[in-house]
Amino acid sequence: MANVYVFLGPPGAGKGTLGELFCRDSGAIHVSTGQLLRDEMAQGSDLGLQVKDLIARGALVSDDIVAAMVAKRLTQPDIKAHGVLLDGFPRTVPQAEMLSTILAKSGDVMAAVLLIEADDAMLMGRLTSRRMCPNKQCEAIYNVQTNPPRQEGICDRCGAALIQRSDDSEETARGRLKVYDEQTRPLVDYYQGKGQLVRMHSGDVAVDVNYGRLKAALKR
Ligand SMILES: [Zn+2]
Questions:
Q1: Residue 35 falls inside a structural domain
Q2: Ligand 1 centre and the CA of 130: distance in Å?
Q3: Ligand 1 centroid vs 163 CA: distance in angstroms?
Q4: Which of 14, 27, 109, 179 is positioned for an S-S bond with 82, CB 3.0–4.6 A?
Q5: What is the pLDDT of residues 137-196, one digit of tens each?
Q6: Binding-site sequence positions for ATP
Q7: Does 91 qualify as catalytic in the annotation?
Q8: Where are the beta strands (DSSP E) in the chain?
Q9: Does residue 148 sit within a domain?
């Protein structure tokens, strides 16, 4: 019987970093659906061949296929021994219902669904902090919060004026947060209703402080 964890959180809240720390600390295996898809394709399994065919035709990989891959991965001994942090599944309520069916069959338990919350201002700051050097011979990347150039707006290496890509613009960031919010709210309500949701606040503080909050949240 394995403990299953799911972390939900907006882009910029540190979900990836916190998940990595959690897995290192607890021994839980990090399983992302993207990696599962690549592994199945690389192995040439029946599922992998179906996925390859869908992708080649530009079609979406259905919930059924993703659920089948997750179900298969959960039977493996490393997960039975150490537990698992699922990344990328479930994203929707129908997927959450599929996961619930999978766990009922496999005998594994949903240990917690952790909702990582953060202030919009912090998220916007993080999502819009990247700057690039437009010089094709240089292409240095900066971050105005964590890795700023010595002189504001100027590349340290070549002196070119730094630019902000449209991916990192306020408009794109707002769009990403809105999509996250719309997709995730029903899932939050679903797990709240099942009494499986725990919450933590991710702040603009050292990573280990946020990680301490995560551990405290999971203990509750
Ligand atoms: Zn440069």
A1: yes
A2: 14
A3: 10
A4: 27
A5: 999 999 999 999 999 999 999 999 999 999 999 999 999 999 999 999 999 999 999 999
A6: 12-17, 130, 141-142, 205
A7: yes
A8: 3-8, 29-32, 84-87, 109-117, 130-132, 141-143, 197-201
A9: yes
